[in-house]
Amino acid sequence: MRRLTSRDEVRHTAGTPGHGAGPEWAHDLAPGVPPAPGAGGRPRRQVSTPAAEDVRTAPPPPSPAPRARRHVGRLRPLLLLAAALVGWAVTAGLVALWDVSVVEEEWRDRLVPVLTVLGGVAGVAVALAARHRPRAAADAGAVLAGVLIGAAATAALHGTRWGWGGLYSDSAFRTQMATRYAETPGLFDYNYRGLPAYYPPALGWIQGRLAALTDVPGWEAVKPVQLLVGVLVPLAAYLLWRPVAGALPAAALVTIWTAEPHKPDEWLVLACLLPWFLLAVRDVRAPGVARWPAWRLGAVLGLLALVHTYWFLPFGLATLLALAYDAVRRRVPRRSGPPRAPVLPLRRAAAIGAVAVAVAAPTWVPLVVARLRFPSDGLQLRYGFPGGHELVLPSVFEEAQAAGVVGLVWLAWATWCRLRGRDLGGATYPLAAGLGLAVLGCCATLGLGALAERADVGFLAFKTQDALLLVLLAAGVVGAADWLGRWSRRTGPAARAAWLPRLAAVVVAGGAAASAAHHLAADWVVGHHALTAQTTRYPDGSVPAGDPDGPPYIPTLFVDPADPPVTEVRAAWRELRPDVPLDEAVLVTSQVDLLATTPVHGFLTFKSIYSHPNGRFEDRRELLEEVADCPTSACAADLLRSNDFDAVDGLVLQRTGEDLLLPFTVDDFPDRTVRDAVAFPDRVLTGPEFERIELGRIVVVALRR
Question: Is 0.70 surpassed by the pTM of this model?
């Protein structure tokens, strides 16, 4: 084979990725920006002469067949999942081998720096590998993110069978959902008998069905599913970000999250909904990515709706703003050419929505039917706190928010360049515009929440602060990648300073990954949710770790450490009413540990905000107050047996002097909740209609057959 001449080398390298535009990894950092044609920004001149045409050139290296590439692309999600699961299994084995225990101060002091260093090393390794194989490095980055989160969560919860937070706050009703679906595959409300599920039940249903298949209590299936979700969230987000921003930016974007791991449904949906919005609503795509069909986008949206739905509000408002923007932009006359076509045509939007509605039908259809047939209320939305609707911007002094400051600056810079008519090339403007619309949607939701609060109406708008922060963090990651890519292309591979952007990319990647890992370790691995899970009492009275007689890190609501364990309460019920199985019993109780770990039906939820819209919380409460005011036990028994809600089988109450107390919380909107209670005089529940067993301060009362 003859040696290539200099002219042939110029022609051969001019069309090769990475030549004349900086290294390939730098171009992939900002995939929407076209590479500079030459090292100095000027186009290379391709010389073609008869002599040069006669020179034989080396054939290009063979490339994989298109069909083989398609197969690899289709298998990528499965390969990434398999790699992440294997990595997680290895780290879980190491955690078990070393017997990690976050209740020990020595382990807490070790885990934070170890996880921080591991995160930084992973970020540096991915950045270095990206110089030569950017796409493989990006895949590895997403896998490493899942493995690191899985390893950290496994270490935090090693030694306990509880999920994050034990039975603290929202963890209690999420555990109650798993307990319900371990008893039945039907999509019913976790508390009230006969009502359809109000909260999207997908994760709770999976936890319950896993428990049923493995023959363990439903509450024990919460932890493994939470750990699995922690591994899957980076992979799911990566597969959605990749067609939007390119491989390497997508790998960086999976390291940011603002929802909390003890709410895995919110975490999963928020991480996926932002890239879905950019892909579906603004059609932001990396070079070479085909437009997704409407059915695929609708299917993804429908699956997310089966998991959690609140985030649909701010991004739904952003979608309306996008449609309005397209409509106005189309009406503005152009100097030449046809009118601008909308980014999201109404027909395509309708098709996406129709598919999503069909996929999510198992949850919304029964709920709509129940709303139409029965009275309903809005207590589930009446929760807030002072400052919940304020526009909270990221702070440079918070390590987990620093990227958000970069995002604000990048969005402002892109807007300024747009107003000046500067051509930034590629998908920079569409990506910045899409993220800007998401910011506006979040701000509009917070503003509407503040206005609604003045009218004594709530719709949980405070949750949008997490979504707003995530959008700004994403803008920061994308902006940093964009600027690094431009710097690299401006410098050129042949310049003396070409190493500077490469070094900057490695430093930024390592520092960002270390910061994300430190946030995960300090706030979660050794934080109060892990310590609460390690010290919450099991139903049999034992505790996962620490002093068996010591108090939990955070007490379970309405449960005293000296109360009898759940197993004793169950045994007392079986002794009183062996004919009524616990999974069929309707009990008046707010013993959170009993409700969360036993598939009983509560007559009243222990928090008004957890009540089903058709549960009629206030009406049930009034009925119980009537029972407490009854002059005789016969009157009380008649009201409990025959009412418009549920026939009560028994009560599990707390003794306070001569009264039997049913505590619960009600909204104090917009300032969180306050405690309230119904006090039953002892004489009202004493008589031939009732029988009881007293277990310390806990009194188990059954209505006689």
Answer: yes
> Comparing C-alpha atoms, which of 668, 685, 669, 662 is closest to residue 558?
662
Residue 215, amino acid: D
Q: Assign 628 to helix, strand or coil.
A: helix
500-557 pLDDT, tens digit per residue, is: 888 999 999 999 999 999 999 999 999 999 999 999 999 999 999 866 677 889 999 9
Q: What is the pLDDT of residues 556-605, one digit of tens each?
A: 999 999 999 999 999 999 999 999 999 999 999 999 999 999 999 999 99
Burial environment of residue 151 by CB neighbours within 10 A (0 to 12, 13 to 18, 19 or more): buried
250 & 393 share domain: yes
Please name the residue that has the structure tokens 């819209």. Answer: 613
Contact between residue 389 and residue 443 where contact means Cβ atoms under 8 Å apart:
no
Q: Residues, the chain, total?
A: 705
The SS3 call for residue 689 is coil
Is 536 among the domain residues? no
Same domain, 31 and 118: no
105-129 residue pLDDT tens: 999 999 999 999 999 999 999 999 9
pLDDT at site 199: 95
> Residue 307 and residue 363: Cα distance in Å, rounded?
10
Hey, what are 160's tokens? 């306990």
What span, in angstroms and rounded, lies between the C-alpha atoms of 54 and 113?
63
**Domain match, 88 and 175 both:** yes
Place of tokens 């009034």: 622
Residue 679 and residue 662: Cα distance in Å, rounded?
A: 6
Looking at the 3D structure of the chain, how many domains does it have? 3
User: Is 662:678 a contact under the CB 8 Å cutoff?
Assistant: yes
